[in-house]
User: Fold these one by one.
Assistant:
Number 1:
Amino acid sequence: MDSSSSRTKKSLRLGAGVAVLVGLTTVGAPSSSADSSFDPSAAQARIAGADRYATAAAIALSTWDAADTVVVANGESNGIDAISASYLAGAVNAPILLTQAGTVPAATAEALAALDPSEVVVVGGESSVSASTYATLTAGRSGDRIAGTDRFDTAARIAQAAADASSAPATSVFIARGDVYGNQVAADALAVSPVAYRAGVPVLLTGADGLSASTAAALSALQPTSVVVLGGENSVSAAIAGQAAAAAGVDSTTRLQGADRTETAAAIAESGIAADAGFLDTGVGLANGYRIDALAAGPAAGEAGFPLLLTGSATTLGAGTERYLQENAATLTTAQVYGGTASVANSATRAAAVAGGNDDPAGASDVVTLAEAFAAALTDDQKTALYQEYTFANASNWSNLPNDLLGGGGGGGGTPPTGGTAPTGAPTGGTPPTGAPTSGATATATATGTATEAPTGTATGTAPGGGGTSSGRVGLQTDSLTDEQWTALETLLAAATGSGENEGYDEIVQHLAADDYLADNGGGDSYGRGNFFVAFLGTPADTGTWELQFGGHHLAVANTYTDGALAGATPSFRGIEPMTTVTLDGVTVDAEQQERAAFAAVLASLDETQKNTARLSQSFNDIVLGPGSDWAFPETASGVKGSDLDDTQRALVLAAIGKYVGDIADADAATVLAGYESELDDTYVSYAGTGNMTDIGDYVRIDGPSVWIEFSLQNGVVLEGAHPHAVWRDKTTDYGGQTS
């Protein structure tokens, strides 16, 4: 391993703007100039691929045109060897790529071919990178493997190999917790990886029970003058710190720590060792502190001279990251965001921009601008599919079913259903609830009918809730989107929906992952994120009316805009299968769990008299006002009335409503929820089933002057067990108030 590479790296100078299409995704080096605002939400700030392997490849290719040496580590599970390898990568001027144990991912193979190294260094034993995978990685190149008996021994051997390859001995050593398993993240070691790369500081690992013999031996051999412990004593105890000091032959250790992983990452960024290595206060890297998508970020951030900050979740910054950005807002100009929106959501990057002093980040631009940007990324044929007429037939042509089960096959529309006519007593597009967005549209309802406890409409098709009334979705199918186009769509959806954890955009991400899970676990090709549709009904503009429609299996987003303002965000359908928490490609799917718990809390708060009043006489195997049952609200509400609830119970009802209203953009959600709160006295709660909201047949309804929400548990379709369907409707602003 030669540390004096003559190969070139991509320029990451401040002010340079480079967008590189690498065959995996569009990635961008920081694009900034002296007079531009700090904006992590800008598309060019994000470096991401379809999965962690493609993300690592994108990171490498955004920084290196070519490399004499490439370091490869296992990217499965927690990827701890990749984090330990940052010091080695710095010593030999190399990017890090990721592989699976038994096969080389296509993204990794493509990146390796593009970088064209003369040497590949594999870290980890054959259980991490098999002999056949090693042979594939090193074919036509010289190869080397650094492996120990376990992760602690491997980290120690990496440190020694890097020290041997470096032109200067290591004077400091980092000690971090390394006993993380499954999809857990060695967050402190991840946060320090750019410093390890740039400053030439090894990262050694410890467990909770004491310093391993391998780590102690490495400390003794390296003979550092300082040992820096990462994290508080809950991570690395004082006893272990003392063992490390003794092994290294130093009097004591220093500690970089914070109240949580975001604070520890900020402490690393603010440390003297980072400053001495030339880290800048003009830029930052941003990665999820609980996911392993940024395993290869250390070399890229180290090359740029950017500290690596960690988010508290996919959608939230965390206290340490927010504080660091606020305190450095005067100098920040540039950001790199590592990983896709499932790792670092657009809501988080917008929050980062605001914390860094940018009050008008790109990601928070109005929906019209982002809709136009998405359309601009499409081909002519895709645009033809995207743009549809703004008609009630198109707007009401949504379903909760997989698209393959709908007549017409999707995309082209076919003949939509009549959608259900408005019964007597249904609104005629009149005044929205107090505080709700006002529709500029004129709506009419001419049909008559009656509705009682179980609403009945005259909609054509199958039973309400089943989705059989749709004849194929209109719009552009997502299986045609490139990674660049997906990113533009995600940015649009994030701006049009809520930023809360498990709400809005975060919930959409989980719904897409859930459908991928069904595809992989018995559902087949009818399921998966490629089977969703996006449509612009009408032309996005600040005048007139148009609708942003996005949906697929178990998901319907229907935002109607009139004269630049949200005129309605319903019908809004959510369902999920499975209802139990699962993880797919690092995305934790527990959408609808908060909603289920909120309804259960409402029902549990009722006394026996209230429960008897709230209990419906019918049984339910699905929601009532599902696809095709438009404007069929009952004339007379059933259940316990809000005015008969105490303040605590009313707060629980409002919280349950908020779980659905929170799916729309935050400012709009606050306005709509205030309107519903003003109507709580005349809002009714009813239920059927056990009331626990855990069993098949459990059903709950909130019926107010404006709000209508149903939540129902029914049999699973692909998987065993109960799964929920839910719909939020508004009696005045469904479809922006249009009834025909």
Number 2:
Amino acid sequence: MAEIQMQVYEEIKREDDDHRYDDLKMEEKKIKNDHVVVLLWKKWIKTNCLALTINMLTTGIILTVIYFIVIAPLRQKLADIDMRLTAIEKQNGTKLRESENVESTNLGGKDTSFMVIFQEGILPTTPKILVASENTTRLSIRYFNQNKIQTITMDKSNTEYNLSKSVLPSVGIHMAGVELHSDEGINVYGFSLGAGVSGGYSSMPTRFASIKYIIPTLPAFYSYKNMIALTPCYQNTVVSINLKLKSGSVAYDNKQYSNNETIRIMVNKYDTFQLSTSSDLSGTLVTSSKPVIVVSGNQCNSAIPINIRAGDCNPFIESVLPTNQLDSMFITPYISTRLNNTVRIQAVNSTNLTIKTGKKAISKTLNAREFLDFYYNTISFISSSEDILVTSYPHGLSERKGDPFMMTIPGVNQYLYEYDFVVPTGFDSYISITVQSDATDGLFLDGNSLKSQSSVFSISEGMNNFSTFSLPISTGLYRIEHKKKVRFGLWIYGNGDPWDGYGYPAGMAYKAYN
């Protein structure tokens, strides 16, 4: 019995050993399989890492080759093109402008809608409009103080129209001015004709009215006031006038305002607001919630100190260009019979200036809203790092032959290659032209060449070469053009006897914004 039990035990033990052996064998096989899998994964990872490294190196080599073969030469070509464009810009005396919001430039200068306003005078004057149109045009006139429209016809023989004196404002808000609409493009000039107190300006088309202006005036002459007048293009326009005053204060609505204080008013369409003060308002900033038209000037001024002036004082008036219609390069024109001229440069933002008169050049830095005055005789060159406003004040003449006047100087980039313009009655008038020196022989006035001019004054600065000349002209409508479509500057001005004078630019190219 014991022997049988021992045999049974041994058989059971052998079966257990066999099972244990099989389990070990299976475990060994599993371990070997896992090891193979690990080896395969390691091999796959190494292979892919190597392939990735090779691809990255290959890509780097290809990109390097592309850069040196394609991109680097292309960049060099672009740099060469940019240098050539810069040279062309300098040669042409113009600057190619880039602006995301600039839509186009109105190279024709003319338009169909205008709002014409004036300033308060010191003596009676006849306010009028001068209309330059190549063809007969129907012009509708709406006086601000009347809710009706009258229509007139203007043509080559009928270029001046007298307005009601209701267009002349006084201090405060009044319905004083006219709105004009024509059936084709015209140039319009606002003009006040009076005995020894005349003045005029080139009216900016309504569609170029804007919301920011920097004001040019001069120190007051005796008790005569400096003035700002403005009219909005839309109802419910909020206007802010931030004063720039060297001394004194401005009174409005029973309150005194000092330097850097702001006058705020609400003005509606067909209202004209006028502000007057004995302080110099140069650098005063006008901003508005909607576009406005602005004029500024003086009741009567001589442009130079009393102790050295010639002639009498004269009313100054000019349409103020908005800050988005300014430029950075200017040529001041030769003004026949007026060899003494004051130029005021008005900065909007901080800017670096270069001014050349004759062979003398100076550099100057102006801070925001500062101004600089200088004198010139025949021609001068002005350039700036930022857009500026430039105004000329030709001095008066002795022996009652002519009084001073105020005249905007458009920049080189604002020139046109053709103009229709009007010369007013009652003056010994002239036109002045500035043009690239190599293009003086392409100008034609009513079809007649102007190439044979005896007194031509020229100036050069870098690659900019400009010339200017002046010639007498009689009353009436004219057309001047450059046959090669070279753009040039044009001004009309005149002397009155006794003691009178006027001047204004014939027109300009306006920038149109979105």
Number 3:
Amino acid sequence: MLPRSLLAALVALAALPAAAHAAGHTTITTPAGGTLVDLGSTGKAVAVSGTAEAPVSSVDVVCLQSAEPGAPSWNSLTGGANKPVTAGAFAATVTLGPGQGFCRLIAIPAGTTPTDVSPYAGPLLRLRALMPGTLGSGPNAAAVLDVAAHAVEPGAGAAFNAATFCGLSSLELTEPSQARVHTVFTCAGAVARTAAGSAASALTVDGHPAYGSLGFVFGAMANGYASAADLPGLPTVSGTLVTPADGTARLDEHDAIARCLPGDDSPPSASSCSALADAGVALSQTSTVARDARVVRQVQRWSSTDGRAHALSFDVTVGTGMIAREWSFAGGPWATHAGGDAVDVPAGPAAAEIRAAGAADDDPSGRGATAWVRPPESISFESPTIMRLRYALTVPASGVVALAFVHSADWTIADLAADRAAGEAGFGPSVAIDAPGDGATVAAGTVTVTGTATDSEGRAGVTVDGVDAAVGDDGRWSARVPVAAGDHGLDVVATDVFGLTARASRTVRAVSPVAPPVAPPGGGGGVPKAPSRSTPAPLPSASKVIVLPAARRCVSRRRLTLHLKAPKNTKIAAVAVTVAGRTTKPKLRGSAPIVLKGLPKGRYKVTVKVRFADGRTLTLARTYKTCAPKKATKKR
């Protein structure tokens, strides 16, 4: 029997309200997890509904950004506050702003700030937004100076600014529990506004300081030139965000580039920059987000705006948001770097990887890689967190010169390797020769060579033996090249906008045209006709010259007869017969035996090659099945 005092205590405990379970559970059921919401430039209204357990009587619908135990964070949503729970259900129409980042929609008890959000379930959303940054006043009011955009997936997100400002402004990972957000890259693939350790422009065109939109405004304002944004000719940007059906995202932007007049002082000042003029080049960039926002592929295309070639130099920055980091280049050793450090440039396309300092290979602490297709002139560090790639390029009078960067972020080495392989695939051209065929005989002089070339980033340039080929929009190309008599190797090179090449080769035999005999002088003292250089008549098909038995039945006697019929006005110089890897050269008597005796029962390919006196050749191949000869039967 329980003591009276203990029994009384248990009764009192049972009478207490169920405070320990007062939080209740809530679940947002609509929209579904993974719903794609295009926030545009002003935000988007989203219908939300769900269920709530007692004692929850009203809820606030919020965007959970971090579920870190003891310190979760969220942002309130317009239209989501104090929604009543009726019969265990609630509904709301909330507005997500265009700057909304990672968002798991959850419903918390109205007016509370819980430190544990595990009782509240809801969907992770996929978000897209494009927010052009414009000037609000002055002569250039409404001029677009930035193309802020972002693409957010449940496990990662990418945000952008103009290429001449911050480029890939962030590439972030969120842990599966959404406890923390890791910023792997900041301002990656950006055309640097200023030189390292200086306020001067890092971008020059033909040796003159040049500027993109925000690079000019910020540089001038930092130099006390507050009215610089009012100058006519202010460079602007434009951009569109495309979300294909495959769930990726693509930001297409165009950046105008300007220079100051009358002087070249940098940063700009009122005395050195009283006017702005087109610098002669422009930048178009495509940024593609793939693999659930863990990979961003940037392609920069520089082109001339005045029909003239220009010398271009600038830095591309790659920053990391990781607090303690190590760098590895082209698979080399891991190391930390300080501002002013320089590293050797790896040959060809290469990459720099980053990780938390001292992280083991199997440590899922978040890591990243930036790969480049065209090697830079130099690699240096502005600080332990910012790498600079220096480029010096020539922008052609027509066409483009291009750079490409692939930024990848993931938790483990294996996942990052898979991301990199997917993001870096497809760069580089391919080329093939269609005609003439390998080993073909052609007339000496000139020959037309044709083929196809492909390139993922446009139309590749093609040369044949150094001669520029005409390349169509469909990739088909053609070139006429000189060939001297004899064997000649054709060397075809395709070059893409990044400077990557692909090669194809083929060998042909060039023969000199046959000259007919000189005609005798005509009557009456006529002038003799000059010899005529003409191309020999085409050869007939191989089967008209090389005659072999049909191969429909097996060869019981293991002996074939070859017949040769030389075309008119030609002479057969040599014959070669190859059977089972052995080649013989029968005498030229119009016919010759081909002996298969000694070979085991089976199928054998017989190849006959005829060479004519003028160097041309014909080849015929036929496969025969051997069998034992029929045994004679005795007559009774």
